[in-house]
Each structure stands twice: as C-alpha cells, then as structure tokens.
Specification:
There is one protein chain. The chain has a single domain, classed as Ribosomal protein L17 (50s Ribosomal Protein L17, Chain: A). A three-stranded antiparallel sheet has the order 1-3-2, covered by helices on one side. By secondary structure, the protein is of the alpha+beta class. The protein contains three helices and three strands.
Length: 87
Amino acid sequence: RLEAPLPRAKELPRFAGRLVAKAKRGGLHNRRLLASRMPDKAAVKKLFDELAPRYESRNGGYTRIVKTGFRHGDSSPMAVIELVEES
C-alpha cells in the first residue's frame, strides 16, 4: 500500500499485474526474469511464495486505487494504491 499522485498511481496496476502474472506461472525462467528486473531479492521471494498462491484463482485486477484528495503543496490529486486482499 502506498500513496502517490493519481497519474502515477494509474500506471502502477499494469506493472504490478505483469509481475503477479509471471509469478503465478512459476518456473525458474520467470523467477530469474523478475530477479533481473527487481533489485530486491526478498520482494521476488514474496511474489512467488505469498502473492502468487493468494491470487491463483484470480485473473487480473490485483490492485485497487482509492482517491484520497489533493496534496497541500501543489493541489495535485493523490491516490492510494493497494493489493486486493484475497484468501
């Protein structure tokens, strides 16, 4: 869960969806592909071990965007983006 300007928050679901989809497919090739694109090894491990099983039955729509108002400094529209919880 993170707060970002609305245009940036609207770009994140595409990136997150691709990461989760590759983790759901599994395999050594996809693990190495994600490891080359993500500098944090713990994040890659979490993608494969926690997030991929959580979203196994879901075909897309892994994130939610909630508008939170405007930033005080420059009145830029802000939003919170978070992963959808699924048991």
